[in-house]
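Protein modeling request. Please complete all fields; requests missing the sequence field cannot be processed.
Requester role: graduate student
Desired output: 3D structure, token encoding
Chains: 1
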Amino acid sequence: MIARVFYKLAILTSMGIFAVLDPATASSRSSHMKLAGSTSQPIGHYNYCKNYSHDCRISTKKTQPPKLTRKRWKDLVEINSYSNSTIVPVTDYEGFGVEEYWTYPTSFGDCEDYVLMKRQMLMQRGWPASSLLITVVLQPNGKGHAVLTVRTNRADYVLDNLNSKIKQWNETEYIYLKRQSQKYSGHWTTIIDPNASPNS
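Delivered output (200 residues):
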């Protein structure tokens, strides 16, 4: 039995998805996000849906997260790396002259544009839309940011243009506010983050 456990740990380590957290610094979050009720749609996503209505009308009845296999982990690593190394980070105001403009980037983009690109590329590889969710967070400095939450049977992972390493959401320093609904891509859901302060 012990041998089997160590064998499984070795496999997970070789896949790059197993990490041992220091008990003194371990997060109070579980490996999967807990959700509350519906919440408001970000204005950037609202306007994006006017231009890409097909992407905001995806309805999913079966929302069971997919199994994290070697192939799927390779998908995440390749696409996260490609997007982060190909797109030049530029704010919406610098690129388009407005505060919020969500679109698919070709050469430059803001954080949410990286998310849209990664989401689209993963869907093209067969990932279900219900497991690829645009997520709004707060950085430690208090600034807003967007990342892609990837739901799997093992954990919720974060693909981030500010960090090339793919982490479980409970291993990041962000405060999680809300994300797309896994049932309907045009709706949003509040995230219950135990690390959030009452004023977050």
